[in-house]
Amino acid sequence: MNFLTRLHRFIPRLSRKSMSFEASVSKLPLPVKDLVASATKENLSLTGTNEKDQAEVVQWIEKVGQGDVVKQSNFKDLNSVLVPRTYIATNYLTAADYALYGALHPVIVKMQAAEYHSHPSITRYFDHIQSIPAVRKTADTFSSFSVINFDLVNAPKVDRTPEPPKKKEKPAEPAPSDSAATPAAEPAAATKGAADEEGKVQKKEKKEKKEKPATDAAKDGKKEGKKAGGGKAAPAADEGEPVPSMIDLRVGHIIDVQKHPDADGLYIEQIDIGEETGPRTVVSGLVHYIPIEQMRDKYLVAVCNLKPANMRGVKSFAMVLCASSKDGKEAGIELIQPPPNSKPGDRIYFEGADFENATPLAQLNPKKKIFETVQPGFITLENREAAWVNPATGSVHKIRTKDGICVAPTLVGASLS
């Protein structure tokens, strides 16, 4: 039984869009086409687990088949697309990732370090895909897809300096009218000019009064900075490369959970995080993955320093950290569990000298995409322990409290988000 016959027999209910999957694969160049066909022959879920995902997979395979997306001259655009993504079409591994990986391979294998370092998101994505055991198993059956080793240790630091704010242009002053130049108009103009000048002085005095405390505080800060840093003010806490210790993780306890009245897929939870102000309201899109009975009274890991977000009319003040199966969210999503006997508010940190004693940011700046940059390294290990794997060095930093490691109930190799 060939691949296409098997596909037709086992997925009879696919939509018209997703039935074009084999047509999109047929347009891929050899040996990429064989790589995708071989992978999907072993795992038909790689075509997408629902109609929407199937359409995305087909769309990306068609893009790869056209060839432009993997041209080195278009890497800047592809790099931008991959910045927030772990996988190209969905939030789990699909045939589109096999296609993009296969098409990129002959281009990347010829690159020097400076070339692939200039496109860090493509390099990170490619290295992640080629290292997935299922991909590696299939790729190793073809001589064309050998492992590419990247010099990630010596990768240059990414410049994350924000762009300076644009200065507002002052409106042009209107030209004086002819009447203002006549002797009869001079007394009126002089009176108006005096009044304007007096108003400017009053506004300036008010402004100085308002700004004086801030100015004094800034001066004090500069003095402290000079004392501590030898003449330079201390840098802002979120400057430099994003690291996991910037994220504020704490033990939370669900004390109430209800379905969102205006969204079928959302829960509204009240989560005790050990704060004097009481529990936080948190909105989570878990209705279709975790039954409400399994949410009640659960202890979990909460991401506490994201910017509050409105979710269908309800403001959410944290995020629940979950593990998504490596085979896709339809294959399972689980709450990451803190160690037994944990208490609400217990600090959760990353193992390692660089992270264990670091203080997280009060709030993550959405513009700097700190969580999005760090998140692709979140994973569950072979023993289900939650960890962050440094993409540059490969070092493993387990996620823990003082009492033990945080774990997923059953999922191995899961992505955390």
Walkthrough of the structure:
It contains 11 helices and 15 strands. Residues 1-18, 158-163, 176-195 and 208-236 have low confidence and may be disordered. The chain has 2 domains: 3-139, Glutathione S-transferase Yfyf (Class Pi), Chain A, domain 2, CATH 1.20.1050.10; 244-416, Nucleic acid-binding proteins (OB fold (Dihydrolipoamide Acetyltransferase, E2P)). 33% of the residues lie in helices and 15% in strands. It is of the alpha+beta class and 417 residues long. The strands form 3 sheets. Strands 1, 2, 3, 4, 7, 10, 11, 12, 13 and 14 form a 10-stranded antiparallel sheet that branches. Helix 4 (51-66) runs parallel beside helix 6 (95-108).
Strand content: 5-15%
Give the fraction of residues assigned to helices: 25-40%
The CATH homologous superfamily of the largest domain is called Nucleic acid-binding proteins
CATH uppermost class of the largest domain: Mainly Beta
Q: Examine the coordinates and then state which fold CATH places here, giving the name of the CATH topology of the largest domain.
A: OB fold (Dihydrolipoamide Acetyltransferase, E2P)
Largest sheet: 10 strands, antiparallel
Low-pLDDT segments, ≥5 res: 1-18, 158-163, 176-195, 208-236
Domain TRNA-binding: 243-349
Keywords: RNA-binding, tRNA-binding
Domain GST C-terminal: 11-150
Region (Disordered): 156-243
